[in-house]
Design brief:
The protein is an alpha+beta fold and 245 residues long. 45% of the residues lie in helices and 20% in strands.
């Protein structure tokens, strides 16, 4: 599973699978779920209207997906060489892209150089290496909480999917001292205002690191607790654990 959808995962999965099967057939090639590359080819070949007549797409999600592909090493920087992007800067520390799908500044959270710098032990090294290699995709709740840093708040929100009207549940971290979003499982960092403009999150819950640390002993006492449920409805889950113990 790539993304958790707390309410209608089955609908999302079914529609997404059908969508990419359709794109592969239309383009007669397989880009391994890289939606923006399909979109670019369909525009070049004058077939994009066929897709838009069949699906009500969420255009902004394509830019987000391109950045995820780049930051999690699913593709090299050539993934951003697309007619959908007019200009880009991938050299400076804070990178940016702009084009048909929008404009945003970003940077990878983990780079080759700072994997070791952030890793005082083997457990920490594996944690950051998994983020860097894209192995954290699909585990946003676990990896966001894994940061366990005093200067962040864990935010769980519904964010866009490929399709209008279908949103998926996602957890990320908001830095309290720098107005940045760490999209942990996707190895991306954004200015908060630009992330909000791109993703338009519908926030479900916010949990400070202080609150999470205070809850740890309770959560450890009940290891079967679903972390996603805890993030979505902390008071209810804590009350349930205390009642059953």
């Amino acid at each position: 599973m790539v993304y958790d959808n707390y309410y209608n995962w089955e609908e999302y999965y079914k529609k997404t699978t059908e969508f990419f099967d359709y794109l592969r057939k239309l383009c007669k090639r397989n880009y391994i779920n890289n939606g923006p590359l399909y979109l670019e080819e369909l525009i070049k070949n004058g077939k994009i209207n066929e897709v838009l007549e069949k699906y009500e797409l969420n255009d902004g999600y394509y830019l987000y997906w391109l950045l995820i592909e780049y930051a999690t090493k699913k593709c090299d920087e050539s993934v951003l060489n697309t007619i959908l992007i007019d200009n880009k800067d991938l050299i400076s520390q804070t990178k940016w892209v702009t084009g048909i799908l929008g404009s945003i500044h970003f940077k990878p959270y983990i780079t080759n150089a700072n994997v070791l710098k952030k890793s005082p032990n083997i457990k920490s090294f594996r944690f950051f290496k998994s983020i860097y290699q894209g192995k954290a995709l699909g585990h946003c709740h676990k990896y966001s909480l894994g940061l366990n840093s005093h200067d962040i708040t864990y935010v769980t929100a519904f964010i866009p999917s490929w399709f209008q009207g279908i949103r998926v549940l996602h957890t990320y971290a908001e830095k309290t001292d720098s107005n940045e979003i760490i999209d942990v499982s996707r190895n991306l960092v954004f200015p908060k205002n630009e992330f909000n403009n791109l993703v338009k999150p519908e926030v479900v819950s916010e949990i400070t690191n202080e609150e999470f640390l205070a809850d740890l002993s309770i959560l450890k006492a009940c290891p079967s607790t679903n972390i996603r449920d805890y993030l979505v409805n902390r008071p209810k889950i804590l009350a349930k654990i205390k009642t059953s113990s």
